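Exercise 7. Predict the joint structure of the components listed below.
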Amino acid sequence: MTCRNSFTTSNRRDFLRRTSAGFGWLALSGLLGESTRAAAAGAHGSPLAERAPHFAPKAKRVIFMFMQGGPSHLDMFDWKPALKKADGKGDGKNRLLAPQFDYKPRGKSGLMISDLWPELSKHADDLCLLNGCHTSNAAHPQATIAMHTGSVTFVRPSMGSWIVYGLGTANQDLPGFVTIDPANNLGGAQNYGSAFLPASFQGTRISTGARGIANIANPEMDAKEQRKHLDLVQEMNRGLLARTGANPEIEGVIESFELAYRMQTSVPNTLDLNKESAAVKEKYGIGSGGTDNFGKQCLMARRLAEKGVRFIQVTHRGWDQHNSLQSKLQQNCGAVDKPVAALISDLKERGMLEDTLLVWGGEFGRSPQAQDAKGTGRRHNNRGFSMWMAGGGVKGGLRYGATDETGGTAVEGKIGTHDLHATMLHLLGLNHEKLTYRYAGRDFRLTDVAGTVVDDIIA
Amino acid sequence: MRPTAPALLAFALLAAGFSPTVAAPPSAKETAFFENKIRPLLAEHCYKCHSADEKVKGGLLLDSKAGWEAGGDSGDAIEPGNPGDSLLIKAVLHTDPDLQMPPKYKLADAEIEALTAWVKMGAPDPRTGDSGAVKQASEIDIAAGKQFWAFQPVKRVTAPQPKDAAWAKSDIDRHLKADAEARGLQVAGDANRWELIRRATFDLTGLPPSPEDIAAFVKDPASDDDAFAKVVDRLLKSPQFGERWGRHWLDVVRYAESMGRTRNVPFPFAWRFRDYVIDSFNADKPFNRFLGEQIAGDLLPHNTPAQRDEQIVATGFLALGSMDLNERDAAQFKMDQVDEQIDVTTRAFMAMTVGCARCHDHKFDPVAQEDYYALAGIFKSTEALSGTKNKGGGGNYYQPQFLATLSEGDSKNAEEEAQKEAAAQRKKLQNQIAEIKRQLGDKKKSADQQQLRKRLKRLNQELSSMGANAGKQNLAMAAEDAKNVSDCKLCVRGDPHNLGEAVPRGFLRVAHYGGEPDIPTGASGRLELAKWLASPEHPLTARVMANRVWQHLFGRGIVATVDNFGETGERPVNPALLDHLAVRFVEGGWSVKSLVREIMLSRAYRLSSGDVAANAAIDPGNDHFWRQNPRRLEVEAIRDSLLAIGGTLTLERPHGSPVQRARKGEIGKGGGEKADERIDAPFRSVYFPVIRSGLPEMFESFDFPEPSQVIGKRDVTTVSTQALFFMNSDLVREQANGAAKALLARAGLDPNARIHHTYAHALGRRPSAAEQNQAAAYLQNFLREAKDKSAEQDAWSNLFQALFASAEFRYVL
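Solution:
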């Protein structure tokens, strides 16, 4: 027991104390063995200032499309001819249920995608289907929390907060991590929380319905009046600074007011979908019943991505088809297909697809067996399911990994939760084993003590 | 994979020093086969994850004979002579999807054949040398570990004499001043009375001083020492002291009013624990008594039913953890709960991160896995009554039958009324269920049937959740001894289904003083654990709490990592001072108030927080307390100050919690309605319901600690959402309006006097001439440009709001 870690600790702290001129240095006091990260943050002041990745990144930002409930991979992205043949075999709870929709080869790559995704299928050559996904738990809450934080057992920071902790964010006028219309339950705020990471890294919840962020507008003062008022506040702050001498925290307060002032313009501008043409809105399905909400989420996501937000999550709920699989999947895909396709083509048009990583998936998948002897749905299945990625340095037109013959268990190219996170971090230029934060005497990681980067899907 | 019974037996035999395989030494031919075929193969494909020099995945070592003979977590790897029964062979064949080695590729057929042949010939292995695993078990050296500063007995030290002896007012000062002199640090000047009363009032009550209190102190003709002692004594007596210091403790014990995580079920009676903590600090309950009640209050003797109730409520400490109610595996759930209880107990009272030893010996601290399971036996023999029970899957909700019943309710009337209400509700549910059942019999349309079934399920859940205690109000979260009290078996790598030998219940060996623990059979050991922790001889308890107290008065502990006194934590910057405080704390009968008073009356506490340029090269971070630290107020103090200055704060304690009245389903999923409180609710923030994953926006943006985790030191971040809050929120505007209205209602004040009042209320001081001019200019300009009649009120509201927004408002200097 002679190993002492205090060498790193004290050096880092002294370093920060000597160099940090701006705010948030306290927020970074948990950084260990991450001197470049700390140095960059110290120089720019803000805890959200952009930081260099560990190595050259493929992707600069992430849009995570979370499909809560357990989307049935077997009816959409995991083509299983054997399951079709075996329809009805097995008794009672073991009765196999054939895929409910036909599959066709799509694009030049010939990726097999079912008829549920006519629009998305047009982008098949950009998609990287991950058919070998698995997770440790088959219950919604645990699997949802694991997907977002990597841990079922403990309260841990969410992947978005880890990423913003690692990289900061490009646009200081907007939050670095935004989640649009997230679920209230199934972990709720834990899924975009920062746990033991400083609060600067937590996700900002935005609603498609309201004005976006709390307190973003002043109900009484006009812009001119408010500027004068703010000038008074800042004069007071500078007066305090003059009395106390250099103080990074008070400098930070001064800076935070200027940022907030700019945010009052930048946030509503970014979220204002009326700035988009009618044609664009139509493309996302905004204004027509089924696609309206998710279309708004996707278009907001694109606008946030354009402005340099690092991690954006959109959420579509209701993929838990224990029954009426056929009609409900049609309904869900009807709501999601068009907006997702619009997002991909929009990003492509803007030259942003190559450095924006899109990740689509739920917390788990569904069983090849029907819900019960007569059931029209499928049960939960954590042993094998599908996700897909696009853009951001992944190979397009690739079907990676596989489940067994009837699609129940991942057997090849397996990707567990930690592998998924490790790969996402890798694409962003972060080594998942080096992105650590010291808490309660231990260096924590998003990937705990596991995780393997899936090299084969990287372009 | 679960170990089979024979595998466990083999493990036990090995542990006892027997070897199940008694093989003759390998022949020359066998040795050659091993060296040519097997050793290179193992080295190339297996050592990376299964050798003492690299990793020991799955607990299996393949770099020594003893290693594979001992087997791994899944049991024996090789059955000599029997490839069919050997897991090693099974693994390399890749037939079982859950057991495939090497994990990323398959060995060549020839290699698999060689391995199979080797096992068949009895696995002759000429390698000698110990198994790394055996070595590992004895690696923790408790005697050596005890040499670490934190496990050394607290030493009574004579304070050193600083050269400038006249400067010091107490031993605390002598320790600090001598240290500063030795380091060549120049100590800051004294704070003025305005600064001092604001600092003291926030530190002791979390509220700003009233202008009257300030005036009385500033004008007090008594000496600085006497005048300040009066202030401190007054504040220590105020009931707001417990609200402030109780909240500090609630941070440490991860207090919350809902389960959080997968099934965020409300805790309708958690507030009793909150009130208990506040009352204990107000009553200045000796800290070792306070500790004992939280760990084993149910086992302590009592004289009155009220005392019994109080002690039972205290054990809510063990039931407040955030658990994954959806965990289907009962053994896993229990061990997770035990882990949570070990974590909070060891970190809160000993600042030790014992939880690391759940799966393996602690990597940094002298805590062996056996130590962990010795403690685990105590908590495994304890039942946490949290009003919930995990069932796995659906059907997890509030279940009042799993709560403790107190002797006395809140009031007889309230009790009866609640009972009546519950009876009516039960009747109503029963009727609804009967009606649905009747309809289900009638109708045939499947869509309707589905809807009805769903409703029926929900109603049945609601009915069963009412349970025996439904409607009762005299309930509390608590802990009690389990029906089955026993030692806990060591979980290999933390897996509750891979059990090793039972470890006798006990404490943390490295912190032992005096004799070995003596836990009577049939007792959980909680009482003994509490007594062990509560002793003056314990090397950690008094130090850890004294350090927490110091941190709350200086913004930084003498050990900066207040929850971690271990190897990975920081070292005390002034060990003699820490021990001095610990000794004084114990001698003062573990009185928190006496310790707080002693520290506050030191000269060190009363220093200015201004910078001393000469120290920049030596100690720029003020590690050695040569000045006070400017400190950001906590969210509670910010909100309470706003309400106090805006004239809307009531100091009365609200009864219970809104969570009591909330629907008892999952928060955000048909439950928790009415648990939300408006952010401008007039009571103190400590009474705001703490819903896990459901904190008010303001709390989140001002660094309220994550209520699932032990957090003795809050983060201080500066983010733009805080600025937006001060610029635009209704709460700030309303309080500014209230303050302005009250100011304008006072007769006979000219604008200058009004500006003075504004500063006195908002910042607790007089404005400088420059500030006076600044404010006057702003007001004049505003009034000149304004058109409507409410302009004057708006102008003063704006000035108040500007002061609220200023950095000084949210800092204690």
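Discussion. Residues 234 and 254 of chain A are 6 Å apart (CA to CA).
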